[in-house]
Amino acid sequence: MKSKYVFLLLLFIIGNRSVKGQFEYNNLSYVVEDIPVDSLQMLNLVLPESVKNAPLLIWIGGGAWSYGDRHVEMKLARNLAKQGIAVASVGHRLSPAVWRDPSLSKGVIHPAHIEDVARAVKWLSDHAQEYGYDGDKFFIGGYSSGAHLASLLSLDSQYLEKYDLNPSIFKGILPFSGTFDIPHYREILRNGARPELAEQHVDAVFGSDSLIQVSASPMTYLKNLSSPILILSDNDLHRYTRHFEDALRQTDFRKVEVIYTFEFGHGALWRNLSGEEESPHRNRMVSFIKENAMRPKG
């Protein structure tokens, strides 16, 4: 019996820790209590110790909807927490990726990923007081495929409405280096160096029905945009950002900031944001959040 309690204590210590200036909670299930410890449907939470009721950035990492990991986003989360921002690194179920590794042949299809993120937002809304971040100062963002999910959840209200929430819960949106028009993305891949990615990658994530791909595209819902948006793009994916920006400029919404970082490729920008001791682009994330945290709700 004693050894059992020691084991449980060790699990608690491993899952939750305090580093200088921060509190960290790992492997928090946003679905049910009794799920495997290695489940994808979990989030990690980092809180700045010195800031009471800090604004919360709900962050979704990249990985082509197929091989993301909430844990690899923790460097970014910790760096943001140093600057007074609470961060939830959200995991979600993954799609097949045989184009990357033949063994990755099983997985989910849209809308499973976005439904997971919506459930995570509901959990975070319900537990704000318990963990001590500000439930009225939510921001959502992500990198690569995470940028797609963050912007889709912010623009298509159906996923949050299942939980009596709506996109006005977000005071700002930070989609970085993503794709926002799935048919456009598929067409570019089909005409590129690896045309098989149109089916093995895009169709494996969203299905082959073009209407569903349109409905899974943030571009489809631009008329719903009501929260300030900060878009950051690397040199490799700038064509997708430009396509999205051009559509945004056709709307009446003007709280839009787009930054193109042509000095960084896709992986290099993520590494700069996450791991560099000094990153002007990460600093812009922080200032964007702090500027908009005081914006009236709704």
Protein model, in words:
The longest helix has 15 residues, at 112-126. The protein is globular, with a radius of gyration of 19 Å. The N and C termini lie far apart (52 Å). It has a single domain, classed as Alpha/Beta hydrolase fold, catalytic domain (Rossmann fold). Strand 8 (229-234), helix 10 (238-248) and strand 9 form a beta-alpha-beta unit. It contains twelve helices and nine strands. It is α/β, with parallel strands linked by helices. It has a nine-stranded mixed β-sheet, sandwiched between helices. It is 39% helix and 20% strand.
Provide the fold topology.
Elements: H1 2-15, E1 16-19, E2 22-29, E3 42-48, E4 54-60, H2 74-81, E5 86-90, H3 112-126, H4 128-131, E6 133-143, H5 145-155, H6 158-161, E7 170-176, H7 182-190, H8 197-206, H9 210-215, E8 229-234, H10 238-248, E9 256-261, H11 266-275, H12 280-293
Parallel strand pairs: 4-5, 4-6, 6-7, 7-8, 8-9
Antiparallel strand pairs: 1-2, 2-3, 3-5
Helix pairs in contact: 3-5, 7-8
